[in-house]
């Protein structure tokens, strides 16, 4: 059914484009796509494969193909952005938050924002609130020759695996922990020493005692990585990553040489990939949580006091990052301006989620 929907949307995209543009002979294009995450990671790394499979299913019509390269097979994951920009590869799959060394801390705003928007609100800001323009501007202002297409969004992540219960901030002080993005800056304010290890590096680091704790992704992904075998306390909610977005990077010269129909197919299929990945991510988490509990893992919900502390430290991070880089402040202010308006709708339109009710207990 979903493949039929994609094929239909592809056909519509082509038809609309062809109706409004001169008929020209399309050139065959193959996007060689190195990815940051292994495609075996269901709901995280599987989305680019889904994107490629659906593009390729109509390649006889679009003359567009996508060839996936697992992490490190074509270029090192950390070199994807620069490699795409230089034309060493013509496409890549990443997220701005993994490129803060090249783009600045502000890049993480386009990946995940602590206490920030969940998936529907994030998508609303990106597509209809100006976020997409700011996202592309980030790459342009830093001199990268890439066209960025938002192409994946995932559900909230768990906010940490620990060897013992965290009863207060004193239990965090001194821990060595794998942590991603802007949330890592919050944890560092509480005395945590953070590092950004890849998925393959985390379990060996836990085994050897090189780190004491970790966060990585959703329960379904964390289960595949085996954290439950070593750490028995898993914390929720994902205050640090209420939703996380990823982008398809295409070399700008490649993008300009693609036909309007081919560009339309990429944009349309990316939107469909986000829908599919988000729906699947929401559907598959609870069995893994139940399985973890059966294996001795205790699922914890942060206390109201700890969540307030994380939020307090996050506000400090925003002030400090804005002082260091005014562009961080400008982007964050644009997001918050949208959130203030969205808050009117949010306050009146929705029933509180069970997790929201849990905080007040």
Features:
3-stranded antiparallel beta sheet; 361 residues; globular; 51% helix; 14% strand; alpha/beta; 3-stranded mixed beta sheet; 15 helices
Could you characterize the architecture of this molecule?
- 51% of the residues lie in helices and 14% in strands.
- The chain is an alpha/beta fold.
- It has helices spanning 2-20, 46-56, 59-62, 80-86, 100-103, 119-128, 131-141, 181-189, 199-208, 219-225, 252-257, 260-294, 304-324, 326-349, 354-359; strands at 29-34, 64-69, 91-94, 146-154, 160-162, 176-178, 193-195, 213-214, 233-236, 244-251, 298-301.
- Strand 6, helix 8 (181-189) and strand 7 (193-195) form a beta-alpha-beta unit.
- The strands form four sheets. A three-stranded antiparallel beta sheet has the order 3-10-4, with helices on both faces. A three-stranded mixed beta sheet has the order 5-9-11, covered by helices on one side. Strands 7-6-8 form a three-stranded parallel beta sheet, covered by helices on one side.
- It is built from 15 helices and eleven strands.
- It is globular, with a radius of gyration of 21 Å.
- Residues 4-9 and 11-24 have low confidence and may be disordered.
